[in-house]
Here is the input.
Amino acid sequence: EENGQKILSVKDDGIGIREEELPNIWKRFYRAENVRKTRESTGLGLAIVRQIASIHHAQIKVFSKIGEGTTFLIFF
Here is the structure.
């Protein structure tokens, strides 16, 4: 909890997301370049997360570094 808001943090130690691709990760069917080459994916997961967060009036912040992973913070 911070400033009266509940915070959900999800962190991984995966391949990370390039900074220039971060604005696009919320788009339906978008798959980052490194994912297109290595994994089967529909590109719907984060679009769904964003929609659910919106329904709950939550905000999402994402931080990522190539080779170190990604952290998503959801503020309720």
